[in-house]
Amino acid sequence: LEGSEHSSSPSKKRKAQQKQVDNDELDTLGSAISKSASIIADTLLACEEKEEKRQRDLIHLEERRLRIEEANAEVNREGLNGIAGALAKLANSFHALTTHKKPAG
C-alpha cells in the first residue's frame, strides 16, 4: 500500500506536470523554429528569383544596346557610302566638264 501511495505522491505529480510543460514548450519552440525556417527559405527563394529576373533584364538590356549599336553602325556605313558615291559623281562631273571644255588654243 505504501509503495502505491508513494508512486502517486505530489512530488511525482509535479515532476510529471513539469515534464509535460517542458514537452509543450519544446513543441512550441520546435514549431516556432520550423515556421522561422520556412519564412527564411521563402525569403531566400524570392531573393533568388528576383536576382534571376534582374540578370535576365540585364541580358535583355545588353542585347538591346548591341542591336542599337549595330543599327547606328549600319546607318553610318550607309551614310559614308552615300557620301563616297556623291563624291565619285562630283569627280566624274568635274572630269567631264574639264574634258568637254578644252581651252581654245
From TrEMBL:
Name assigned to this protein: Uncharacterized protein
Ranges for region Disordered: 1-29
Record field: compositional bias (Polar residues): 1-10
Taxonomic source organism: Nymphaea colorata
Top-rank lineage group of the source organism: Eukaryota
